[in-house]
Structure formats: C-alpha cells, structure tokens
Design goal:
Layout (H helix, E strand, L loop, with lengths): L17 E8 L2 E8 L3 H5 L10 E9 L4 E2 L2 H8 L5 H11 L1 E3 L2 H22 E2 L9 H14 L2 H20 L6 H12 L14 H15 L5 E2 L2 E8 H4 L2 E2 L13 E2 H7 L3 E8 L2 E8 L1 H14 L4 E8 L7
Antiparallel strand pairs: 1-2, 1-5, 2-3, 3-4, 6-7, 8-12, 8-13, 9-10, 11-12
GO cellular component, one term: cytoplasm
Subcellular location: Cytoplasm; Nucleus
Pfam families: SBDS_C, SBDS_domain_II, SBDS_N
Length: 318
Amino acid sequence: MPAAQINQPSNQIRLTNVSLVRLKKGKKRFEIACYKNTVQAYRAGHETDLDNVLQIPNVFLNVSKGQVAPNAEIEKAFGKGFKRDEVVMEILQKGELQVGEKERAQELERVHREVLEIVAGRLVEPKTKRVYTTGMIEKALEQLQSQGGHAGRHAGKDEGKSREQSANTGSSTPNGDAGETEAKEAAKPKPIWTGVTTTKSAKSQALDAMRALISHQPIPVARARMRLRITCATAMLKQAVKSAPSADGDAPATGTVKDKILSFVEQIETQDVGGEEWECIGFVEPGNYKLLGEFLDGQTKGRARAEVLDTAVTHEAD
C-alpha cells in the first residue's frame, strides 16, 4: 500500500532561523521575515545590506502560514501609490521584533550587564571617590527594584504630611513664591527603578538607574566627574568636523572643532584665549574622557590636548 501523501498549500513558505518583525497599521498586522541577530544590527547602523537582514523581501499577513499581504490590504493601510520595498523598510524600522523566550532572556541579560557597566563607570562613593563594582551596583538596584513603585509614592506621602504639618502650625517661608516652588518640586515623584527591559536602549536605562540611585541613595552615590584642562590652537577651533564621536556615543554629527570639544564637557569652569592658544577648564565624565582623547588625536593633528587636573575616581573598590 503506497504511503500517504500530505498535500500542502502552494503558498506555504518554510522558514528556519527566522525573526519576525510585526507592525500594526490600521486594523491589519503586517510581518516581514528576517534573519536572527540582524534586525538590531541594522537599526543600529552596523548592518546596511538588506540582503543580510531579510530572508524574503516581501510583506506578509502571516509569515508562518506563508500568507503574503495582498496589494489591496497594503494600499488600504499604507496608502495609494505605495511601494512594497518602502513598506518593508517601514516595518523593519518601526515594527516590533518578535523573538523566542531563549533569545529574549539572552537579550535581557546582555542589556542588564551593559546597564550595570555604564552605571558602575559613572557613579562613585561621594566621600572617598571610590568606584563601585558592578556587583555592588546590582545589589543596590535590586534593593530599589524590590520596592517597586512604592518608593516614589511613599516619598510623596511623607512630603505631603510635612506640608500639611507646616500649614497646621502656621509656619511659612520668607518668600512665598519660593516656598511654593519648593513645595511643587518636593511634590514631584522621585525616580523609580523597576528593572531592565529589552524595549529601551541600555544607555537610556542606565541614566534611569543612576537617577533612581542618586535620588534614593540605597548606597551613597554621586556622579563621577574629572576636572580637565583642554588646550587647542585657535586656528583649529573654527575648522569644520565632518565626522566625529559625540559626547554620548550617538551617531556622528557635523560642527566645528570647538563645538565638538565642548560637547564632551559637562560643566565649563573657565574659558580663555591667550595668544594663539585656547584653553578650557571644565568637568568631564570619565566615560567621555576616552572619547575626547580619541577626538583630539584624530581631528586636531596634535594641536590640542587634554590634561587631567583632578579625577573623582581615585581608588578601586575593595
């Protein structure tokens, strides 16, 4: 007896090693099929060849069932005169990346480690200026996370009680407007920390974590800053820079040499011109010191330098 034959739809597409990117437009959900580990690289600008990103350069209603999106559905959602390639690009850029549990856990762990490294590199113990290890930062964040959203709400309640007590006792500030402003500031909820997520960049989440740590102080922390003297030949200051690393590591931007140098400086203490040399003394985060040095080496042809006058990070934690 011949073996039974399984008939499959002619439009069935079998894909392996696939990541889906979905975008809801109007009342329909559209999907594209991408290779794993390439979508984030493309969005970050590290991968530019779409052939290395897309398994099939087409738009689907359901990738797993091989249901290609009809032109009528795409036109209804994206408008008349659409180009399928442009729709693919929009889904790739704006869509939600679907990953499995294992991949999601790995990505979460990667972001978690990156957040800890950024935070540990930018916060110090205020008195000793010691840096904290990532393990110590992790424990402090876990302490905040265990409080959930309660820290901010409790703080608000305590501050509300203080204002109520002041009102009952008839106390007031010398300047009513200033007191009102302070009261409004005090009423603002404190930053909270509820853990990392894969939907935001590690840099953005690290800033959130630092704000929460500084606000609640589960361990004594302060922003680390280095005091630098930056000198540069005045003839170089107005020269245009076509491509240079920015202070926060984002995409390169155009500007003058002076603009780029100052973009690394968090706070300017003094700025002066003497003869043919410009001097700036200011504070820079340790993480930006390396970027500043690379910029000066690569863009000023040895006609600028950065000298460390004082470093907030003087000891490694035991």
